[in-house]
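Hello Y.,

Per our agreement to keep a running log of every chain we model this quarter, I'm adding this entry. I've kept the format consistent with earlier entries: sequence first, then predicted structure.
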Amino acid sequence: MSIQTWTYVIVLATFAGYAAIAILSRVRSTAGFYVAGRGVSPLANGMATGADWMSAASFISMAGLISFIGYDGTIYLMGWTGGYVLLALLLAPYLRKYGKFTVPEFVGDRYYSQTARVVAAFCAIFVSFTYVCGQMRGVGIVFSRFLEVPIELGVVIGMLVVLSYAVLGGMRGITYTQVAQYVVLILAYLIPAGAISYKMTGQVIPQIGFGSALADGPNAGVYLLEALDQIHRDLGFPEYTAAFVAGKRSQIDVLAIALALMAGTAGLPHVLIRFYTVPSASGARWSAFWALIFIGLLYTSAPAVATFARVNLIQTLHDTPYTEVPPWFSNWEQTGLIAFDDKDGDGRIFYSGDPARNELEVDRDIMVLANPEIAELPAWVVALVAAGGLAAALSTAAGLLLVMSSSVSHDLWKSVIRPDMSEANELRLARVIAGVAVVVAGYFGVRPPGFVSEVVAFAFGLAAASFFPILVLGVFSRRTTKEGAIAGMLVGIGSTAAYIIYFRLLHPELGSDAWLFGISPQGIGTLGMLVNFAVTLGVTGLTEAPPAEVQRLVEQIRLPSDYEGVHIPAPVRGDSAHGIAASQGADSSR
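Predicted structure for the entry above:
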């Protein structure tokens, strides 16, 4: 069968499986919709977290980034995995022990303020919306190439699929769908990685093949990375394994991006909410452990996949007559994501690090998807990769939609505007909001402000600058006040968003010379985080200490016990007329 036929078969089969899980997991309570009834095992939650975490950026774009920028691309590996260490040590068990539904709910209670909760809800919506746009773009790319439909139509199809199980099953449906999606995406990543590794180096394990010599071709007997460094030198690119050299990121920018990704990982609402679905704080720690294991299977393979793809791309296309390009090039050329511009008129593709001479433009988001075709693997493997890319994008999109939905229905409407709303009406509103959110996200998926990993990196910077300081101080500092938290969140996310908008949307032509301290928009979240810490602590020092009940809350959630479901009495709600206080008992008993 052809690649397209195989793709239809595998993608439709997986979609049918996701739909069946959603129907079987349909929920009729807010506890089931928001936190899956808190009955998910740590192992299943770890697998679901892996799928939720390994988005289109991880599956499709991360190896593409490493493939093009080499060593510097490892900042994404270090940042995205290192963040889970921060999460497991500093936040996950304590937030789970607190025993509520959402991150804004914790912020509102810990900082005894409805205003803090509203600000946190808007931050959650902004961060999640930025993140989900990248997922929709990944969906569009996969559909555009493998099902031969326009990117716009591909995004619409993806919207309908993710909306079906997010709306029907809520967090319960999303969780068990993500378990299935993890199986699909990890097989789709490791099978071609192992096949290509064996074909190029004779080693079936890609992590070993990454450090081995090439088995055949003009560089047979030469270690893979040495061969690629030489190829780069010959074509005018910076050495693949070099760091902090001309044409690559500066040391300060690499550090800033890595820190922003780490702190952003520990502050992302859709990641944090996963730890609310397990039965206990101990389960939250074990979930983080299993998630790291499952994520590590893909992340340790990504550098090898990136390097194999880079070598194959150059050896296949450089100095090749355009009339003799392989079929995969023609197929991807129709999507507009790879293009040849014959600058010298000789009809041959010249690929160079010199922009004046380079005749090949390649969208880095296609590298993982195109790699099996470039390596001439069987059609079913190519189709499996397409299904894996869709699973990665859709699993994360579902989690993000739930965060946006719960932020509006639970944290804003139920707790602030209509505290007397019934559970049935709240559930109905949550589903409507999820539908609106996916439509808006789909629009920006068609017209994103960058490639997938870049858009996702912006979301991490925003999370680092808004949530990470407030959550860490909320758990470990009794003295931090509501005024400090509100000011810190607003200044942190505001300054970070302004920087990103200025350099990526208003003045994209400005280069690194114009960046503050040489830090790119992808790394500015680190500065935003430091500003947040400084503003929060500074304002805290100028304002009255939190009520005694709140200080006891901070001590309680760190106690080594199984006590859960902390309750703050209504009188300490400094700036709230009603809302959270009225709903705490109901939340704890759901």
